Amino acid sequence: MAAAARDHLPAAGLDEADEAVRGTCEDASVCKRFAVSVGYWKDPYIQYFVRQAKERKAPEINRGYYARVHGVSYLLKAFLKKTECNCQIVNLGAGMDTLFWRLKDENLLPRKYFEVDFPMIVARKIHNIKSKPPLSKPIMESHSGESLLIDSHSLDSSRYSIIGGDLRFSSDLEEKLKKHNLDIQLPTLLIAECVLVYMTPQQSANLLKWAASTFPVAMFINYEQVNMTDRFGQIMIENLQRRQCNLAGVEVCKSLDSQRERLLLNGWETAHAIDMMKVYSFLPQADVKRIEGLEFLDEKELFEQLMQHYCICWASKDSSNLGLASITF
């Protein structure tokens, strides 16, 4: 998957690796839709992007997605509050994410919301948006100015933009974003959920460095694996490898320290990392109690192990002194 791997991998091998990564987008969306259907959180839009799961998902998986969605949302809303929504969001490897529509419903839209993913995923998402009024209407409602630009691999309105691109090539990425009116002077939140782990450490470092050097005021939220050198982590890696899915960047997922270090070494001023069990304990406990009543969880130990192998990391740089460094759970 990587520049280094490119020299050794035939093009077909590279395509297969990318195809396996694209498959993780479908898996995540199906899991989210299932959790929503059971009542873990509300998302009226996910149904327009992905089919309902053929079989039930395990309660520990549903709780894991609940913690992921709410953990990322908590930090994102803290950023929106600090910037008073006078900012932009760049969702990297966004897949079938519905965040734009949910923020619009809550009246929390930033000045502009960008999504970037593989062109094939973007084409599918655009097709869904064009063919489903509950998705297209909010984009039209928030659009002002000239006519909306749309083709098979990109869509650009005044508040929402979706771009097909490869995150492994940040110069190409910047050019595409600027074509869609990215404003590097605006406070910018970048989100990556289970994205960096599929890039080599060098490629993710380049992306983080690009973001830190491009935006004077910015925050980066990264959700992905951690503590991957123990036995449980090894089993997770083997399970993914069986599906031809290689975690090219897994060496950075050794520990919370290695996650923090990567951010600090690549130009970010502050960096934090906590595992998802901790995040789960920080979420509003009344709602946690409600979701724990939805399904019986037999495998408490498995749930805890799973949550200790995922983390949320966030970093900031803040030349305008908006107080981004103080954002925490």
Automatic annotation (TrEMBL):
Domain of life: Eukaryota
Root EC class: transferase
ATP-binding as UniProt keyword: no
Keyword field: Methyltransferase, S-adenosyl-L-methionine, Transferase
One term of GO molecular function: methyltransferase activity
An example Gene Ontology biological process: methylation
Catalysed reaction, written as an equation: [phosphatase 2A protein]-C-terminal L-leucine + S-adenosyl-L-methionine = [phosphatase 2A protein]-C-terminal L-leucine methyl ester + S-adenosyl-L-homocysteine
Gene3D superfamilies given in the database record: Vaccinia Virus protein VP39
EC number(s) on file: 2.1.1.233
Function: Methylates the carboxyl group of the C-terminal leucine residue of protein phosphatase 2A catalytic subunits to form alpha-leucine ester residues.
Family statement: Belongs to the methyltransferase superfamily. LCMT family.
Full protein name: Leucine carboxyl methyltransferase 1
Native organism: Apteryx mantelli (North Island brown kiwi)
Gene that this polypeptide is encoded by: LCMT1
